[in-house]
Amino acid sequence: MANGEREAGTDVPAGGFVQLLTPDGERIDSVTTADGTTYSVDFTDAEYRQLYDDLVTVRRLDVEATALQRQGELGIWASLLGQEAAQVGSGRAMRAQDMAFPTYREHGVLYTRGIDPIMPFGLFRGVDQGGWDPNEFKFNTYTIVIGAQTLHATGYAMGITMDGKTGTADGEAVIAYFGDGATSQGDVNEAFVWSSVYHAPIVFFCQNNQYAISEPLERQTRIPLHRRADGYGFPGIRIDGNDVLASYAVTRAALDQARNGQGPTLIEAYTYRMGAHTSSDDPTRYRIASEVEAWKAKDPIARVKAFLTKQQLADDTFFAEVDERAKTLALELREKVLEMPDPQPVSMFNNVYPHGSPEVDAQKAGFERYHASFEGSAH
C-alpha cells in the first residue's frame, strides 16, 4: 500500500488510492506510491479558490442542462454530477499544447479548456452535430460510440511522436477519457495495445463511476481497473476521483511523463455517478438509496469548501459570490439554448465532404425538389 494511503474503510477501496484531500477537508501534504513516485500540489491561495469556483460552476451548468432536458429543450443529457473533481482536476492539469479526447460527459474538462460551455448543447438539442474545431480548442468533439475515442486518441498520440513533438518538457501529450464500462469494449483494449507497443504519449483517464449504465463494477472486472495496465506493459494508478487535488497531481505527472517520451499511463479515478447515466435512465431500478447517501458524504465540492474554510482561505462572502456567478452563467446558458435556431432540413447535406461531391449534390437537389413539393399544401 502506498505511503500516505489510508487503510481500507468507508472512504477508501481495498488496495487504497492516491488521496491528497480527505472527505472532511483535511490536506495530505504528499503521497508516495510503491514505485517511489511522490505526488503533491503547490497551489497559491487564489488557485485553491479557483478550483472551488470551477467545481461549483460546472455543477451548476450541469444542473441547468438537466432542467432544460426535463423541460423538453434538450433531447437528452449526460450528467457529470459527482464527477466534477475528476474532470476539473485532470482538465486543469493539461498544458496548453495537450489534446483531450472526451466521451459525451466531459463538460467539466471542456470548461477548464476555456471553451464556451454552450458548445455541446447544439448536439444535445439536435440542431447540430457538435462539430467544433478540435484543433482550435485542443479538445476533440464528443464521442457517442463507447470507447471509440481511445483509438482516435492513440492514433493522434502516435502522430505526435512521428512529428517529433515529444521528448522534451515542452512536448505534447494526449489524454483520453472513458468510463468503467468502456473498459469492456474491444476498442479500448486495442488502444492499450497500440499505445504500449508504440510508446505513445497518452494518458488513459478512466472515470470509474461504479456503473456501466446499470451494470455494477463487480460484473465488469475481477481486479481493480488500474491493474489492467500491467498486462499491456505500462503503469496504472488509482486515485480518489472525488479529490480534485489528487486528480490534478497524478494527471499532471502522467502527462509530463508522456510528453517526455515515457509512454502511456492508465489512471483510474475512483468516483461515483450521483445522478442517472443519462436523462433517459432511472438509477433507482438498479441501486439503493443508502449507497447514494454514502457517496454524498464524499462530495467533491463539499470537501474543497471545508478545506478553504478550515484554512481560512475563503469566507461566506466568497462562497456566495461563487454561487451567484455560477447562477448567472447558467441563466445565460439557458437563454443561449432557447435561442438556438432549428436547422433547415436541407442542411444535413452540408459538410459531408470538405470539397463537395456530385453524388451528394444530386441527392441534395432531389431532396430540395421533394421538400418544395409540400409548399402551400395544407397540413
Can you walk me through this structure?
With 379 residues, the protein is an alpha/beta fold. It folds into two domains: 31-338, Rossmann fold, CATH 3.40.50.970; 345-379. The chain is 41% helix and 9% strand. It has helices at residues 45-70, 84-93, 107-112, 121-125, 134-137, 148-162, 186-197, 228-232, 244-259, 289-296, 300-310, 316-338, 358-372; strands at 31-32, 38-39, 99-101, 174-179, 202-208, 211-212, 215-216, 236-240, 265-270. The strands form three sheets. The chain has a five-stranded parallel sheet, sandwiched between helices. Strand 8, helix 9 and strand 9 (265-270) form a beta-alpha-beta unit. Helix 1 (45-70) packs across helix 2 (84-93). Residues 1-10 have low confidence and may be disordered.
For the structure shown, list the relevant keywords.
379 residues; alpha/beta; Rossmann fold; 2 domains; 5-stranded parallel beta sheet; 13 helices; 9 strands
In short:
The chain is built from 13 helices and nine strands. The protein is of the alpha/beta class and 379 residues long.
